[in-house]
Specification:
Layout (H helix, E strand, L loop, with lengths): L4 H12 L20 H5 L8 E2 L16 E5 L8 H6 L4 E8 L3 E2 L3 H10 L4 E6 L6 H11 L10 E3 L15 H19 L4 E4 L1 H7 L9 E4 L5 H4 L7 E9 L7 E6 L3 H7 L4
Helix pairs in contact: 1-6, 5-6
């Protein structure tokens, strides 16, 4: 998939006029082809990871989902990716950039190490509310290679009350407009509609869930998303920030994919 300057300008024109890009097609519930036995055999399903601060799940918990993954940044230090893969991790999201001038120093090592070990990976950007969305999108594009085998990119939007440099909390209309600009630019460049990662308070206060044609990755460490985000549709669920995974020193975020192993293989581009 190739980007074009005209395509980007056309999308930006739509965004600036308040129009929305057409929604991306969702993964079909009825696949036209089924994965082979060999593809399914390569997956590790229903893994069990430790947790340094476990939650006692009532009703449906994360262990009822087949596909589990991690998200990492420089805070995890050097990662033993073959050991991570052997532990049952099916995917990894890797922090690439933040704002318009911060690049994660471990991104390149993680970006290369994960696929060498057979771990599908994608990149994420942490949004900074004191820089324009277009500037941040260009910064991400500068640092994250185009790879048709990569998972869809992720836009991480959440409040950061501990920021020393940016205390802005834009209203929901502004947040959604900035998100649309960022998503449109990345979709034009990578050919994949980015996923939005967000938290409970941000989701509630900004109405970010109203964005059409966008999949969501929701953080909820003390309750199932259907309880914490009533009525929300989600593709990924971050269920703890204190997970224990062999090959990683210290805590790591753990996540599940919403649907079946077959749907995972289609969504992740493995079939």
């Amino acid at each position: 998939m190739r980007s074009s300057v005209l395509g980007v300008l056309a999308i930006m024109a739509l965004v600036s006029c308040g129009a929305k890009p057409p929604p991306s097609p969702e993964v079909s519930a009825a696949p036209t082809q089924r994965p082979s036995e060999a593809q399914l055999a390569q997956l590790t399903t229903y893994p069990r990871f430790g947790d340094n601060d476990p939650h006692e799940w009532r009703g449906r918990g994360p262990n009822s989902y087949a596909i589990h993954g991690i998200d990492v940044s420089r805070y995890q230090g050097e990662i033993d990716w073959p050991q991570v893969r052997a532990s049952g991790v099916s995917f990894a999201y890797i922090k690439a950039t933040e704002g318009g001038d911060v690049a994660d120093p471990r991104f390149i090592a993680n970006w290369r190490g994960a696929p060498r070990a057979g771990v599908p990976r994608g990149a994420y950007h942490y949004f900074y509310f004191c820089r324009p969305a277009a500037e941040q999108a260009r910064w991400f594009i500068k640092h994250v290679p185009r790879d048709p085998k990569a998972l869809p990119p992720v836009l991480d939007m959440e409040w950061n009350p501990r920021s020393r440099t940016c205390t802005k909390r834009p209203d929901g209309r502004t947040v959604r407009a900035e998100a649309r600009k960022f998503l449109a630019l990345l979709e034009a460049h990578y050919g994949q509609r980015p996923v939005i990662y967000t938290t409970v308070d941000f989701f509630r206060e900004t109405g970010i869930g109203r964005l059409r044609g966008t999949e969501f990755w929701l953080r909820s460490v003390a309750g199932h998303p259907r309880q914490v985000y009533p009525g929300a549709h989600w593709r990924l669920w971050q269920y703890t920030g204190t997970g224990v995974v062999p090959g990683i020193a210290g805590n790591v975020d753990l996540n599940v994919f919403h649907d079946s192993p077959e749907t995972w293989l289609r969504w992740s581009g493995q079939m």
